[in-house]
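Data availability (excerpt). The following record was deposited with the supplementary files.
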Amino acid sequence: MSDPGNRVKAINLLDALQELRDAGAEVVQVDDVRVGVDSYFLDDRNGVRIDGRLLSVPYRFLAIGDPHTMTTALNIPGGLVRTLRGAGATVLITPRAKVAVGAVRSP
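Predicted structure:
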């Protein structure tokens, strides 16, 4: 997800995560951060942080789950993709048969 106008906020990224979870994503990685049940997004003057780590644009979500279900959920009319595009972001969804999530979560 690109954000040339820096208008995507923490709440938008949280919405993306929630949509993926609701669509059955079993594992999610945002940039190089493995998402856990206690993960959080926060706006700050330098951009958006996840679990205290500053994210870089373009934001990249990797999710393990049914690609068709997740793509459909993200593209529902009036849903996440439309909201992000309304904020000036460009969203690219690339379903893959195989996804490798390399980030690990420290206890």
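Summary of structural features: The chain is about 25% helix and 20% strand.
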